[in-house]
Amino acid sequence: MAQLLRVQNFNISSDGIGAGEDQSLERPFGHVAPERLFAWAGATASWPMRTDPGGSRGLDDYFTRDYARNIGAEIMGRNKFGPQRGPWHDDEWRGWWGDEPPFHTPVFVLTHHERPSFTLSDTTFHFVGGDPATVLEQAREAAQGKDVRLGGGVTTIRQFLDADLVDTLHVAVSPVTLGSGLRLWDSPDELLDRFHMEVVPSPSGSVTHHLFWRK
Ligand SMILES: NC(=O)c1ccc[n+]([C@@H]2O[C@H](COP(=O)([O-])OP(=O)(O)OC[C@H]3O[C@@H](n4cnc5c(N)ncnc54)[C@H](OP(=O)(O)O)[C@@H]3O)[C@@H](O)[C@H]2O)c1
């Protein structure tokens, strides 16, 4: 069976913004408070970063549960991994997620700056550069027959869309308007030349799921 490249649970505002500007150690999403985009996901029972029991079941939970299903590797941009820019001057930085990252697979961090791989629990981070097709090839090999998740941020997703390598997308649109930031799209219709789209408002009222699959 084909190994898909899947965007899972990517969160944007109703005006298409997936992160704020001016990211820093204190503000992983820049000027945007992450809960404005992630509230729906954080409320679910299967939210990967959940530390306490409980959480909702239903459609939103189906999507957070699906986050890991049949995923064997992730590709992410270095700005999702952390706030450093340029050469890696601080190798002590090992991502935002602590000693138990929620990936549980190899993760390929896109960067133009070399850094050795390291492992935290059952997640190994590799630092790679190159054109998207070459990086995807590496990730597919590591995924050992399973799919590859394209984890963001915005620049990374747009790059793989431009290279026409994405097979499916789940984009969760929250009912907030942010005005400025890193924009995934002006309108979801931009993808309709290549993808079918289904728009599914959640009964929770806190998100509208956008599902895309190839024509
Ligand atoms: N809304 C969501 O669901 C969601 C999900 C994930 C992340 N985020 C947020 O999105 C923001 C990050 O997004 P972003 O668009 O700024 O950046 P990004 O996509 O995470 O990373 C972009 C950087 O990755 C490196 N890179 C990308 N493609 C490359 C290639 N082919 N070869 C080598 N290096 C490559 C470059 O860094 P260098 O040249 O500097 O090495 C580039 O500047 C963060 O605030 C994060 O928290 C949001």
From TrEMBL:
<dbReference type="GO" id="GO:0008703">
    <property type="term" value="F:5-amino-6-(5-phosphoribosylamino)uracil reductase activity"/>
</dbReference>
<keyword id="KW-0238">DNA-binding</keyword>
<feature type="domain" description="Bacterial bifunctional deaminase-reductase C-terminal">
    <location>
        <begin position="52"/>
        <end position="187"/>
    </location>
</feature>
<dbReference type="InterPro" id="IPR002734">
    <property type="entry name" value="RibDG_C"/>
</dbReference>
<dbReference type="InterPro" id="IPR050765">
    <property type="entry name" value="Riboflavin_Biosynth_HTPR"/>
</dbReference>
<dbReference type="Pfam" id="PF01872">
    <property type="entry name" value="RibD_C"/>
</dbReference>
<protein>
    <submittedName>
        <fullName>DNA-binding protein</fullName>
    </submittedName>
</protein>
<dbReference type="InterPro" id="IPR024072">
    <property type="entry name" value="DHFR-like_dom_sf"/>
</dbReference>
<dbReference type="GO" id="GO:0003677">
    <property type="term" value="F:DNA binding"/>
</dbReference>
<dbReference type="GO" id="GO:0009231">
    <property type="term" value="P:riboflavin biosynthetic process"/>
</dbReference>
